[in-house]
Amino acid sequence: MASAKDIRVAPIAKRDADALILRLHYSHKVTNNSALALGVFLGGRLEGAMTFGPSMDKSHIQPLVRDTKWNGFLELNRLAFSEALPRNSESRALAIAMRMIRKSYPHIEWIISFADGCQCGDGTIYRAAGFVLTGIKVNKSLLRLADGSVTHKMTQVTGKNRNDHFAKTGGSWTGQGTPLDGYQMRYIYFVNPAARARLACKEIPYSEIERRGAGMYRGIARGKQAMSDVQSEQRRSSTDPHAPN
Fold first, then answer.
1. Which of 40, 51, 201, 233 lies 20 to 30 Å from 125 when distance is taken between CA atoms?
2. Which of 75, 82, 77 is nearest to 23 (CA)?
3. Do 109 and 74 meet the contact criterion of CB atoms below 8 Å apart?
C-alpha cells in the first residue's frame, strides 16, 4: 500500500495545474495570476496541484508581517488533491513545497493562504503542516450571485469590472450578492522562521476555531465533538512514524 512518502512534488506547467484544479477543486475555478505551479505525483501520475502567486489585495496583506518586501511573500491560492493520494499526502506535499520555495526563492519569507469555512473546510491540512492561524472572521467576501454562482468580492472591484462596480455601490467595496454563511480562516507559513518575530497581528490558537463555532470539514459544519475528534486525529498523526516530518 502506498504511503505519503511515495509522493513526488515537482514544478509543472500552469496549464496542467489549472486542468487538474478545474476538475478537482471544489470551486472549479483557477487563479489567473498564479506564478508557480507544483504538481503532486504518485506512481508517475499527476494526482494533485498547488499554485502560488501574488495576493489579490497585496497592499493590505503585506503589512501582516512587518518589513516585508513587496516581493517577499506569496499566496497559496489553489490546492487540489485526488482521492488516489495516500493519507497525509496534503501535509507532506506542503512541507516539500515550502522547502522547495526556501531553496529556489530565498527572497520569499512567508506564504499566506485562506481556508474557506463556508464551502470547504477550516484548514485542517494547514494546521498539520505547521501554518500559523492569524485570522478568523465571519464571511463577508464570498458572495452568491443571482445565478447561483459564487464569487469573491475582489473580482468585482478589479480589472474591467472596477468602474461598473463602483458606479453601482457609490465607491463601496461591499460587492454585489449575498454573503455565504460561515467563516474564513487566514493562515501564514514562515518559510523564513525568523520572520515570525515580525508578525504584526496576533497568533490565534487553533482551539479558537472550535470556540467560535467556525469548524467545517469537507463542506460540512462541525460541532465541538467533531472538532475534538479531528484534533485527536491530528495528535495521532504527529506521533505516527509514517507521518511527514
1. 201
2. 82
3. no
Residue 122: closest CA among 208, 64, 202, 192: 208
In sequence order, the β-bridge partners of residue 38 are 11, 50
Mention every residue, 6+ apart, whose C-beta is less than 8 A from residue 85: 4, 7, 40, 42, 47, 48
The label of the residue with cell 472549479 reads 28
What are the structural domains of the chain? Answer: 4-138+183-238 (3.40.630.30), 140-180 (no CATH)
Neighbouring-strand partners of residue 125:
none
Residue appearing with cell numbers 470556540: 211
Q: Could you give the 3-state DSSP secondary structure of residue 88? A: coil
pLDDT digits (tens, 9 = 90+) for 27-85: 778 988 899 999 999 999 999 999 999 998 899 999 999 999 999 999 999 999 999 99
Q: Please give the distance of CA 216 from its chain centroid, rounded to a whole number.
A: 14
Amino acid occupying residue 225: Q
Backbone φ and ψ of 89, nearest 5°: -65, -35
**pTM listed for this prediction:** 0.77
Beta strands in 32-98, from DSSP E residues, in sequence order: 36-42, 45-53, 73-81
Residue 143 β-bridge partners: 151, 179
| DSSP secondary structure letters along 156-210 | GSSGGGHHHHHHHHTS--S-SSEEPSSEEEEEEEESSGGGGGGB-S----THHHH
Q: Name the β-bridge partners of 188.
A: 112, 132
CA–CA gap between residue 224 and residue 226 (Å, rounded) = 5
Identify the three-state secondary structure at position 4: helix
